[in-house]
Amino acid sequence: MKKIKMTVSGRVQGVGFRYMTKMVADQIGIAGIVRNEDDGSVYIEAVGPSDKIDAFIAAVKRSPSPSGRVNAFTIHEDANIENYISFRVTN
Questions:
Q1: Exactly one of 11, 36, 69, 88 is catalytic; which is it?
Q2: Is 36 a known active-site residue?
Q3: β-bridge partners, 11
Q4: Which of 7, 47, 49, 51 is the most exposed place for a label (fewest CB within 10 A)?
Q5: For this structure, is 11 an active site residue?
Q6: What angle separates helix 17-28 from helix 50-61, to the nearest 10 degrees?
Q7: Are 90 and 35 in contact (CB under 8 A)?
Q8: What pLDDT does residue 21 have?
Q9: Does 91 have pLDDT greater than 90?
Q10: DSSP track, 29-40
């Protein structure tokens, strides 16, 4: 099981990015959370098999929202992320 934290910036707020990210996570089979941050970025925690996490990361980098655009991102593995059972938008 791979657990990652991801912060995405660009045109990622106000364009349906969080809800489209949830849709992608549900399709791939990833659990976790996605939320807007005060600085205009989007924060994601994702848990799943390594190959599915890699597919999820690739989809997020391309922007799951047609109106969105990812300019920058950071990804860190973190074994301390909780074992989510579903993917949800938290704010």
A1: 36
A2: yes
A3: 69
A4: 51
A5: no
A6: 150
A7: yes
A8: 97
A9: no
A10: T-EEEEEE-TTS
